[in-house]
Design a protein that fits this description.
By secondary structure, the protein is α+β, with helices and mostly antiparallel strands. The chain contains four helices and eleven strands. Strands 8-7-10-11 form a four-stranded antiparallel β-sheet. Helix 1 packs across helix 4. It starts with 8 loop residues before the first strand and ends with a strand.
């Protein structure tokens, strides 16, 4: 069942928070390619998916650009070709069976995170100093907007990431927060109803603090 390996979710039982782990290329992405793609794409049409380096250096003949654009899954030909109705040619793998929604979401998440070979090493601290707190979002359930509130004891920059239940990154917001409470509004006009997870990181100096991760529900 290696071809169905998904991203890992670490659950803190005492608080109910959920952390979405970064995608590992060798353990999660390459097995998808090995099971579905490399029998044809060992160099065909300018695309070789047999390793990280060949994947990142592959240029699709029809697209005229590298198939992976780090941080931009919607502009990556690799994603376009495995999803329905690609811009050029037929959907891959040619003739099917096609990749599952979970597999496509995993590839999207990997590209959204920067298409790294291994998860980035800038560790996030989960032991929070006093005064750092993720308060949650309101309203919840919501349609189509909700406000995610948090508290910090000093000025920080923050990164808010929102994922689908399958782990696909759908929204990322960065900004600065003054001491006290900050509320960040997000609107899901173009997203379907369902469960989403959000994760908030506060950055101060050289330190990255995970304020927490929570679940929210969009109901349209």
């Amino acid at each position: 069942m290696n071809r169905f390996i998904l991203f890992f979710m670490l659950v803190f039982c005492t608080s109910g928070t959920v952390i979405l782990a970064q995608v590992d290329y060798a353990g999660q992405i390459q097995p998808i390619f090995n099971a579905n793609c490399t029998s044809c794409h060992g160099g065909q049409s300018g695309v070789t998916l047999t390793s990280y380096s060949t994947t990142m250096n592959s240029v699709g003949d029809l697209y005229g650009t590298e198939i992976v654009v780090p941080g931009e899954p919607n502009n990556s030909p690799l994603v376009d070709k495995v999803e329905p109705n690609p811009s050029f040619g037929t959907r891959m793998p040619q003739g099917g069976p096609f990749l599952s929604t979970n597999e496509i979401d995993l590839i999207r998440q990997w590209i959204s995170e920067g298409a790294n070979e291994v998860p980035t090493s800038n560790e996030i601290v989960t032991e929070l100093p006093e005064g750092f707190k993720l308060k949650g979002n309101y309203p919840n359930p919501f349609n189509p907007s909700t406000n995610i509130a948090f508290e910090v004891p000093q000025a920080v920059s923050y990164q808010l990431k929102i994922y689908t239940a399958h782990g696909a990154l759908v929204e990322e917001v960065a900004g600065n927060a003054a001491p006290g409470e900050t509320s960040v509004q997000v609107s899901f006009n173009n997203q379907p109803s369902g469960i989403y997870f959000y994760q908030l990181v506060a950055i101060t100096g050289e330190q990255r603090y995970l304020l927490g991760s929570k679940k929210m529900t969009l109901v349209k």
